[in-house]
């Protein structure tokens, strides 16, 4: 755990957007590169990134969808008004989709008010990074790594940090003694469920209202069926009408198409007695951002997020 922030992002090809780039451009770039966020950067020289202004995150896009999707809009041909995507005719839905796509990215950076910009110097040590990510009163999902001139050189995420230190952690007894069912769930991503037959737009609205980035999708008997996350909004990139499908059908349609290099994030779960190391192994293997904890009937009883893990590690390592 002796590496610096600069070494952890070494060789990274930083994808970013300009403040005046459109939401549609940011959305497409996220989908193409399998990203959940992009830095909003003022170019320095040519195409090189300069000073970072903030991040635009898929959770910001969900929050912005909640705003645009519930604005009162009138049909441009004078045929009435609609207060939600659910009651839109074709013309209003097209107008709503256009308003969503043509907004500048700088306007929706931290639109959800949950992902403020955090910057760290390139020379920060791995241990200090763990302490930084694990601050008990904050939910830090990524940081901008900057040089001494405050120019962006890379983006370090929770998952990148945990992958880098994973080998060292498995040797620590304190870490091995932690169980998934006993972790102190401090993340904003508390467990919430929605039925599989809920309209997808309503599920994203629930996600926004609850301040979450994911929801467990359950069957009629309460058994966990799937996971829908803010990342799944990418499935509506080419067709807003998909938001009117049930969650079950929305996920079936959108995950049938490979967006970028990978499919959208799916369901991963474990039992209460699994150790934190086993949980981290599973998360590293599947590259998901959360893992549901289930009981003997496969009913969800909790969710372990990367933030929960970072908080737990900070308490052990500090």
TrEMBL record:
Keywords: CBS domain, Repeat. Coiled coil: none annotated. The keyword Repeat applies. CDD domains: CBS_pair_SF (cd02205). Residues 8-72, 112-178, 185-243, 263-318 form the CBS domain. It comes from the Eukaryota. Pfam families: CBS. The keyword Zinc does not apply. This is CBS domain containing protein.
């Amino acid at each position: 755990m002796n590496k610096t922030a600069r070494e952890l992002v070494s060789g990274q090809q930083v994808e970013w957007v300009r403040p005046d780039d459109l939401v549609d451009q940011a959305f497409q770039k996220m989908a193409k590169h399998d990203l959940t966020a992009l830095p909003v950067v003022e170019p320095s020289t040519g195409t090189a990134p300069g000073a970072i202004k903030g991040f635009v995150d898929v959770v910001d896009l969900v929050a912005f969808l909640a705003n645009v999707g519930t604005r009162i809009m009138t049909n441009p041909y004078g045929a009435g008004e609609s207060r939600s995507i659910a009651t839109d005719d074709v013309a209003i839905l097209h107008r709503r989709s256009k308003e969503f796509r043509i907004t500048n990215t700088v306007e929706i950076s931290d639109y959800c008010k949950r992902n403020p910009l955090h910057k760290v110097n390139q020379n920060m040590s791995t241990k200090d990074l763990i302490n930084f990510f694990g601050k008990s009163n904050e939910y830090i999902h990524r940081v901008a790594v900057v040089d001494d001139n405050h120019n962006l050189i890379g983006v370090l995420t929770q998952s990148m940090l945990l992958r880098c230190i994973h080998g060292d952690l498995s040797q620590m007894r304190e870490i091995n003694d932690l169980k998934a069912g006993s972790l102190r769930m401090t993340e904003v991503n508390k467990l919430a469920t929605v039925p599989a037959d809920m309209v997808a737009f309503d599920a994203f609205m629930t996600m926004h209202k609850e301040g979450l980035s994911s929801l467990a999708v359950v069957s009629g008997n309460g058994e966990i069926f799937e996971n829908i996350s803010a990342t799944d909004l990418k499935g509506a990139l080419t067709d807003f009408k998909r938001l009117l499908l049930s969650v079950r059908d929305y996920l079936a349609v959108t995950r049938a198409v490979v967006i970028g290099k990978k499919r959208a994030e799916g369901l991963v779960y474990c039992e209460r007695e699994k150790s934190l190391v086993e949980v981290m192994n599973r998360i590293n293997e599947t590259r998901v951002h959360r893992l549901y904890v289930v009981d003997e009937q496969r009913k969800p009883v909790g969710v372990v997020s990367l933030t929960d893990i970072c908080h737990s590690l900070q308490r052990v390592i500090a």
